[in-house]
Amino acid sequence: MVERAARLLRAISAYRSDGASTTELANTTGLARPTAHRLLVSLAEQGLADRDAKTGRWLLGPELYLLGAVATNRYDITDQARDIVDQISRLTGESAFLSAHRGDETVCILCREGSFPLRSHVLHEGKRFPLGVASAGLAILSHLPGREIDDYLSHTDLAAEWGEVHSEDQVRQRIATTLADGYAVNPGLIVEGSWGMGAAVFDRAGRPAWALSLTGVETRFREPRRTELGTLLLEHAHRLSVRLKSQ
After folding, report:
1. DSSP letter string over 201-213?
2. Over the stretch 89-106, which tens digit does the pLDDT of each residue have?
3. Where is the IclR-ED domain (predicted)?
4. Do 138 and 101 contact (CB within 8 A), yes or no?
């Protein structure tokens, strides 16, 4: 019950400010529509979900705001990271992001649009991807302990949803390349022509808890600029890791 309710809340968050219909949420979570509706009503009774009286679409509820405000002191690093994300975007002209590691996913929690007029719109605040798909998730997955990587890939079929370019063998090849380079590269695997690069940010325990990333059009990520962008990402990811460990 709790797991299904959590899936619904995550699904609602993916629709951002417009909300989602019961049918859309049922399809997204794989729940039967009556089950999804029953759970949504229960969540609304607790203030965790809210239904727009005019459109009938579901949104996150006010109680989540209050709970989130309490959790902010422990988990929210956006204030510490904002100047770094801004600087990455300003120096490169690309859109820059901060994503957080949550379970088997990453969720974008901060973004800054770049000045270059052509942009990739794959990533935005609140957007979730499985580990190993986008560059932020690949950077984080690559720096997890080997046993955790093996466990994740053994129970996750990325290829089923994201195509054969996300087969276990290919993901493992990209993990090896990421570890060798220090930064991850997504060469248009989600949307053709839309590239991304990411570098892991580590918590006090030395675990990859966040990632800085850049996205843009393919022509902006060719060598030698790609190596320059990777080096810049690593420098700023290290800077943020050191800052977080000192607080």
Report:
1. EE-TTS-EEEEEE
2. 999 999 999 999 988 999
3. 63-246
4. no
Cis ω before 62 (30° cut-off from 0): no
Rounded distance between C-alpha atoms, residue 156 and residue 159, angstroms: 9
More confident residue, 15 or 58: 58
pTM here?
A: 0.75
101 pairs with which residues across the strands?
Answer: 106
> pLDDT over 70 for what percent of the chain?
93
The string of DSSP letters for 6-72 reads HHHHHHHHHTGGG-B-HHHHHHHHT--HHHHHHHHHHHHHTTSEEE-TTT--EEE-HHHHHHHHHHH
Contact status, residue 191 vs residue 122, Cβ threshold 8 Å = yes
Q: In the chain, what are the domains? A: 2-70 (1.10.10.10), 76-245 (3.30.450.40)
